[in-house]
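Lecture notes, unit on binding sites. The following record was shown on slide 14. It pairs a sequence with iron/sulfur cluster.
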Amino acid sequence: MQTAATQSDLLRKYDVPGPRYTSYPTILHWDSVPTPEQWIESVADSLNVAKQQGTGAAIYIHIPYCRSLCTYCGCNSRITTKTSVSQPYLETVLKEWSIYRTRLGTQTQIPLTELHLGGGTPTFLSPSELDQLISGVLRDTVQTADAEFSIESDPRVTTAEHLNVLSRLGFRRLSLGIQDFDPQVQLAVNRIQTEKQVEAVTEQARQAGFNSINYDLIYGLPFQTLNSVEQTIQAVMRLRPDRIAFYAYAHVPWVKPGQRHFTEADLPSGDEKRELYEFGREMLAAAGYREIGMDHFALETDSLWKTSLNGKLHRNFMGYTSRFVTPLIGLGVSSISDSWDMFVQNEKVVENYTTRVEKGELPFFRGHKLDREDRILRRHILNLMTRFETRWDDAELYVPFLGCVDEGLKEFERDGLIEFSKYYCRIKDEGRAFLRNICMAFDARLAQDSSAQRLFSRTI
Ligand code: SF4
């Protein structure tokens, strides 16, 4: 007689490389880069739909510079202590924005619903440089009534002056990179920052008028233990952010050589890593934080939790968001844009990005035009990532891959992780740890190109 698999067996079984699904198709499977004309037409169409619905665009601006390398980093960052790089870079971003403005037509201002600064380290720029950059972008936009501005920030290089300038420009959401407060872990990842520093920036932000503060934590880092996670979360609880992202460390040293600073033996195994998450999750639940989607938590007063209750939670390249906004226009090196029909990504090296912009070109180097099957499968993956369930009908079953997706789902059903029928898939509580694996059953592009799978980080 076959005995039921234990949680440990399942963690071992499903600890395989897999996408995080911040987009579908995932970037490795983009294969149809649009022309600049097609891209602009798609953005303009998306903008027209947004205007009809009373919303506007989202703009993401990437600042790649950081003063030192955190060895776990998976972002597109350029390490330098030369502050002289900031001014030419921000001028290039403003030129890129002016290329968009010209190509989209300069008669009307662009409605703006979201503005997000990420990196790298946005506060690598001085307060006056940030002012110049943001004011330059806002000059050509009109903000919708519910517009939200947010910024990712490194507590080690964020000053009260930065926060005051950002607040004056309309920023109300701040996301601070914390990761772990344990000294041994911080040494291994080359990111030394104290609870006092984080407390100071948090208080300064609140005084400056920021009303939503997020902390990013990571589990699965080298030398992390249950004790270090406990100490970190206790410190976090004292500071009481509104949201917490408790991400799995993504080990991809073949893409990010900085991760070779420590060895795989220093990392918690799949079982141990999941135990860190479950332990942290219980602490957060006891402190009043509600779990949302994958790896995210929020207080009940926060819009992300309220949105998750009304089924409107969304997920994009920046992770979970409390609403669907399109088009997303990404400015800056390596930024990704999404018109909902197409994706593009900008050049990933600053010099190449700058050369393209100086020539007056839209500086993207790859992209993808979604076909009908992509759109249908994206909807199901997005539903699973945000609501843990999805439904389809007979018409959709004509999509070749969806017609045979039950083959992939049967295994999860046998393992007690999902319920599914011909038209329905629901992830049980026991299956939440395997969300990425279950989404992979809907990923036609991965099924057609399984050799790409090894390039992703592990799912557990
Ligand atoms: S500050 Fe952020 S982007 Fe920069 S190296 Fe550290 S983790 Fe990467």
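Take-home: The domain at 30-369 is CATH 3.80.30.20 (pyruvate-formate lyase- activating enzyme).
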